[in-house]
Hints:
By secondary structure, the protein is an alpha/beta fold. It is 38% helix and 20% strand. It has one domain: MoaB/Mog-like domain (Molybdenum Cofactor Biosythetic Enzyme, Chain A, 3-Layer(aba) Sandwich), CATH 3.40.980. Strands 2-1-3-6-5-4 form a six-stranded mixed beta sheet, sandwiched between helices. Helix 2 (26-34) runs parallel beside helix 6 and helix 5 crosses helix 6.
Amino acid sequence: MEQMHYTIGVLTLSDKGASGDRIDESGPLLGELAAGLGDIVRYQIVADDEEKISLLLKSWVDDLNLNLILTTGGTGLSPRDVTPQATTAILDYQIPGMAEAMRRVSMEKTPHGMLSRAVVGVRKRSLIINLPGSPKGVRENFTVVLPALPHALAKLNGDSADCAEVVV
């Protein structure tokens, strides 16, 4: 089966990144890691503002019809970490297994992995994945969900093949 080519958005959530006080390393890394799935058609850095994040995610899904949106940052316990709330507010439903897999791989490295509040979910036909803000966390977490992404994206885009079928 030929793999489809998807449109992807990468959104970095960082007060310091948005103000120019920090260079974003995680967003470009996510773009590199996801490049095999399709085209990175949107990349943006936004401050940790729940309403702005929700509005941008909605626009990327509702107006641009992006297939995959990858966020980095804002998934911890700080009062400014609002990515999960902003994402959950616009989702149709969550995909908890993917978020659980990311937390599991993080907990293999540090007990602080259990503090991640990252969510994964669907709005319309778009998959939205919250990832940590550090390049190390991005790589570890994205690598664990990457094998499931072609199938997940195909299903969201109307693939009617049996889910139990393993395609090699």
